[in-house]
Amino acid sequence: MMSGGEKLLKEVQIGSVRVETPVALGPMAGVTDLPFRLLCKEQGAGLLYTEMVSAKAILYHNRNTEALMTVDDREHPIALQLFGSEPDIVAEAAVQIEEKNFDIYDFNMGCPVPKVVNNGEGSALMRDPKRAAKIISAIVRRVHKPVTVKIRRGFNEEEVNAVEVAKILEDAGAAAIAVHGRTREQYYTGKADREIIRQVKNAVSIPVFGNGDIDSPESAVSMIRDTGVDGIMAARFARGNPWLFASIRAAINGEEMPAPPTGEDVYRMICRHAEMLVKYKGPYTGVREMRKHIAWYTAGFPHSAALRRRTNEIEDLEGLKQVVYEALCDPFGKNF
Hints:
Blueprint lengths: L11 E3 L2 E3 L3 E3 L8 H10 L3 E3 L3 E2 H5 L5 H4 L9 E6 L3 H11 L6 E5 L5 H4 L11 H14 L4 E8 L7 H11 L3 E8 L10 H10 L4 E4 L5 H11 L3 E4 L8 H10 L10 H19 L1 H15 L6 H8 L5 H12 L8
Parallel strand pairs: 3-4, 3-11, 4-6, 5-6, 6-7, 7-8, 8-9, 9-10, 10-11
Antiparallel strand pairs: 1-2
């Protein structure tokens, strides 16, 4: 376990927005909703991102989009992530939502899923830097909040162009860039390439956040030392582990490491998370969405497979809490 030492990251200025602790919770569809963001904020995440929101859905007033853009006053600073492929549409959507309670626009050029890529959106734009620049320029011209971009290493091994893309986006007006050190074709396999992140950091003058394989305070510290980035972005490894931000924050501030969560700590966090989901999404949706989170929270615990099976059958909040208590806190595990 790491102990106290030097302070590794300074506060970051993204346009008009000050990020005191540049440790970000990266955007994840179906994960980084308001309840989960608040839990990560409490644990030390210094910058939050919403789930990605379709620019077209905003323009067409899709009924599910409003919930994705709901922000609590406790979340600042927070970026709202947009995706799209048509400059005029993305910019118009940005204008329509500027008065909402967020601080930064983030534009998605990293999503690898086929239904997004096949529409020329997400990481498909790594293949079309000129179009991406037009999108960023169009947003920047029409809004007052800063605009950032999340990119990948490239589209595939033959098209590793993150450095070129980052320069183009900076020239188009981007206020910061987050780099995932994998190509689109890699999805989340293999190791994230820190060398490309280092090259991007050296190529631009705006803040750069390093993303990929941030699963511990040690990995965050080594990312900073290997690449010189201005900030860290953790995503997949924060699922079921909001405590990750507490340990990363301590590590980069040169503070003593917090103790790892106990089974009772995990139980209490699950209860809070479930209560918040039910509050914001209602009992039917909240309980069902909590099932995947419980699987992440309890991975590696005794009885975790049996717990997943049990929770998939439970439809009410109190029943969910009881089953999790029996699995994590009952020393005899009498029901598992």
